[in-house]
Amino acid sequence: MTNKKMIKLCLSFVLIFLFTVTVNSQHHDFEGAHFGEEHSEDDGVEFGEHEDIDESLITELTDTSFISFVESHPIVLVEFYANWCMHCQHLRPIYAEASRLLADEKEIALAKIEATANTNVAQTFEIEGFPTLKLFKNGEFISDYTGQRTSSSIANYLKRQTIPSITTLSSKNEIKSSLQSTELSIIAILTPTTPTITPFLEKFANSIQESYSVAFIINSEIYNELGGNEGDIVLISKFGFNSDSGFSTEVFGKFENILKGDKEYIDQLRKWVEVRKFPVFGILSDETFSDYLSSELPLLLVLSQTEENNEYIDLVQSVAPEIRTQGVLSCYVGVGESEMLIRELGLNENEIPILIIDGKDETHYLFGKRELNKESIKTFVNEFIFGELIPSYRSEEIPLDNNGFVKIIVGNSFNQIVMNGEKDSFVLFYTKWCPHCQKFVPVLDQVANKLQGISQIVFGKFDVSDNDIPRRDIRVEQVPDVRMFTLQGTMEVYSGSGSVEDVVKFIHSHATVKFELPEFTEEDKIELADGIDNETPNFDDILGGMEEFAGEYGDL
After folding, report:
1. 404-458: per-residue pLDDT in tens?
2. Tens-digit pLDDT profile for residues 447-496
3. What is the CA radius of gyration of the chain?
4. Do residues 26 and 434 lie in contact, with contact meaning Cβ atoms separated by under 8 Å?
5. How far apart are the first and last CA of the chain?
6. What is the rounded CA–CA span in Å between residue 422 and residue 365?
7. Which of 195, 214, 327, 539 registers the highest number of CB atoms within 10 A of its CB?
8. What three-state secondary structure class fits 23?
9. For 221, which DSSP code?
10. How far apart (Å, rounded) are the C-alpha atoms in residues 381 and 272?
């Protein structure tokens, strides 16, 4: 997994609390989590009720059958899944319902492949999280599906793929009709004659078809009304429309560069339209959260504190058009969700509830106590863009009594305890509700006790559900995660049987200051049922831990 794909946003309001309860579980790749997923009654059953799912319309693929299947169907959506992944279990009834909604669409096929058993295909497409949904057209990979994970959203997305990705429009009425019927903004190419569709243009149009349609505007008489000239690429948007035209327009550049196959120019256009598929000033909700998140774009958030429109929202909204040109999205969060988010971030009443979330690594930056006006907000955004801001990290209080063999490490004590340059550190990263983490805690205690005479090693545990690691070079993407940080600057990840003996021998092999191995009892040799590795966890155990945690903390 790449570093940029880590635990998705250590922020906790209603949507993110649900993420915390469902994502951080043992051995689940965090990239598989899509928060804010809206599930209707038609989207299937809940966990543990999957026995009667009809998946007869979904083709199970293997390394051997994959290529021939995707090449023999015009449009294929493939789910890459793992049997142990609870998010895959959740998607099963939704995906099955989507297949039923598409039963009459002869051009469309739904398929799935168990990625951990079919590693050749998984490696070819660089699968890093589960479930991952990938779209293929005539055997060629087009793009990942990053939309809402509901049966209707998946079905509508695939139906749109049957519509030609490039069309021709000749009047304002046709433009309005297209905006209304497809619910997609238009990337318009102003050209009186329809040019030859190059492979570059066709691939670009296919890759953005989830959010945009591409159209040649052949009527030069309406170019002025669209704000462009012949040869321009113009975004005709469903957002920010005015009452006269019914839509808004914005010019990107010249079409001839696409005809030339200028890849750098096409990439610039792709980034430009990615920002503009969102409203200039939007609402972060359960319906929009996964879309904002999957964009990996920086997000300027303002948190509502009252039901009435407040000055924070007004000011951010006023600068939103300008900062969007810098590639930064803007939106606000409703009152109820904001209250939880404010508590989670530790904001006090004197701090202005405005922050930036970096969409690439999910760190967040607080506006702080600076003077509030348009210019200070724009300065805040510019400081983020130029890397001049210091990230904000969550942390529990540093415990006053922390003299046990295993230290309690929090965000604000991580560098002091783990990275102090004086000792090796052996750390368990965990969540309080993960049953596999809880099984390892007594092992850690026993190891620390057995090695208490080794002064050059410190043992600790770090709750990732309540604390952020204040270092960008350390990413915890699954729990339990057990690591040793050495004085030589190495970071070793423990993966083994989970027995006291195995852990001690691991520490012995990586310790800066060598020590003599202690004697081991038969009890020290007892292995954990699932060990500490990246293999198949017990789904029932994961679910049980989640339910126990939800029962205890359900009133948060």
Report:
1. 999 999 999 999 999 988 999 999 999 988 888 989 999 999 999 999 999 999 9
2. 999 999 999 999 999 999 888 888 877 888 788 999 999 998 899 999 88
3. 26
4. yes
5. 32
6. 31
7. 214
8. helix
9. G
10. 18
